[in-house]
Design brief:
Layout: E1 7-9, H1 15-23, E2 28-30, H2 41-51, E3 54-57, H3 61-67, E4 75-77, H4 85-98, H5 101-104, E5 108-110
Parallel strand pairs: 1-2, 1-3, 3-4, 4-5
Length: 111
């Protein structure tokens, strides 16, 4: 089991976020890379759970999934266009530095 947070970025996330995290040595998958383009939010959450990856999203529909009790490995959420790409990367790096995967399971972290 991984002892370090790994991320999955939903399809609305900028490629620049994935690149910025990878340059810092953080394990990241993206929706297109995982073959999940067009997949439902439930499928995205299931992928994250199976792969033990915290899902980064700017889609508030994932908050509804959490409220409905859909299991997930963790959600990092920030409303679209409220932070710069650099600020988003720094916020995700902070999650990576401070939390373990088990701490994020079933939790929503608002950036």
């Amino acid at each position: 089991m991984p002892r370090t947070i790994r991320f999955h970025l939903d399809e609305n996330s900028s490629k620049a976020i994935a690149g910025g995290l990878r340059r810092r040595g953080i394990d990241v998958t993206t929706t297109p890379e995982a073959g999940l383009t067009g997949a439902s939010d439930e499928q995205q959450a299931a992928f994250g759970l199976t792969e033990r990856r915290v899902l980064f999203t700017q889609d508030h529909d994932f908050l509804r999934l959490d409220a409905a009790g859909v299991p997930h490995a963790g959600i990092a959420y920030r409303a679209k266009d409220t932070m710069t790409t650099g600020e988003l990367i720094q916020s995700l790096v902070l999650i990576w530095e401070l939390h373990e995967p088990d701490e994020m399971a079933g939790r929503v972290e608002y950036l």
